């Protein structure tokens, strides 16, 4: 039987819409897989995000080792997603990211409802989709991509 793993991007989202999407999916742990857990978007930097999801009864875990290296982030910002993917996959072969992936697999395996967080709205343009696929190689998963309400001003 497959375990459900969710992913979410906060690009264009409101903090309230983001939290509602997590609550609707009954998420228990938000796994932040950004290398740098800061954001210019209000409510999405590490401390504010952690506090915001805690209000909804959701735990927060920052797994920096599962973030995209700087050169991969630059490639993604430039729209070079194939290059970002190549850089990220090479990064994932290193010991620290491998250990973080195994730790995350253990959490998911325990039955905790986990959601992977990164910035991009489209999971196909984000490394969180790669992390989800790597986890699916370790345990049976059903992957779902949550879509938070969009900020009308974004």
Based on helices, strands and strand pairing, what is the structural class?
alpha/beta
Q: Mean pLDDT across all residues, rounded?
A: 93
Radius of gyration: 14 Å
Distance between the termini: 39 Å
Q: Looking across the biggest beta sheet, what order are the strands in?
A: 3-2-4-1-5
Shape: globular
What letter string, H or E per element, gives the SSE order?
A: EHEHEHHHEHE
Count of the domains: 1
Low-confidence stretches: none
Number of distinct beta strands: 5
CATH topology tier name: Cobalt-precorrin-4 Transmethylase, domain 1
The profile of the biggest β sheet is: 5 strands, parallel
Bin the helical content. Answer: 40-55%
Strand content: 15-25%
Short description:
This protein has helices at 15-24, 46-55, 70-77, 81-91, 95-109, 127-138; strands spanning 3-9, 29-32, 59-62, 114-118, 141-146.
Task: Describe the 3D structure.
- By secondary structure, the chain is of the alpha/beta class.
- It has one domain (3-146): Cobalt-precorrin-4 Transmethylase, domain 1 (3-Layer(aba) Sandwich), CATH 3.40.1010.
- The protein is 43% helix and 17% strand.
- The chain contains six helices and five strands; from the N terminus they run βαβαβαααβαβ.
- It has helices at 15-24, 46-55, 70-77, 81-91, 95-109, 127-138, and strands at residues 3-9, 29-32, 59-62, 114-118, 141-146.
- The protein has a five-stranded parallel sheet with strand order 3-2-4-1-5, sandwiched between helices.
- β2 (29-32), α2 (46-55) and β3 form a beta-alpha-beta unit.
- α5 crosses α6.
């Amino acid at each position: 039987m497959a375990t459900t793993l969710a992913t979410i991007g906060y690009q264009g989202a409101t903090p309230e819409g983001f939290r509602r999407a997590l609550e609707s999916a009954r998420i228990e742990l938000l796994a932040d897989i950004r290398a740098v857990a800061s954001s210019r978007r209000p409510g999405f930097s590490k401390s504010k995000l952690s506090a915001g999801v805690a209000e909804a009864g959701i735990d927060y875990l920052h797994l920096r080792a599962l973030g995209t290296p700087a050169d991969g982030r630059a490639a993604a910002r430039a729209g070079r997603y194939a290059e970002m993917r190549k850089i990220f996959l090479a990064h994932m072969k290193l010991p620290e990211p491998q250990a973080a992936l195994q730790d995350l697999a253990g959490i998911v395996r325990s039955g905790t409802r986990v959601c992977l967080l990164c910035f991009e709205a489209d999971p196909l343009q984000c490394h969180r989709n790669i992390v989800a696929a790597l986890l699916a190689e370790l345990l049976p998963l059903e992957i779902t991509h949550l879509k938070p309400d969009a900020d009308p001003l974004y």
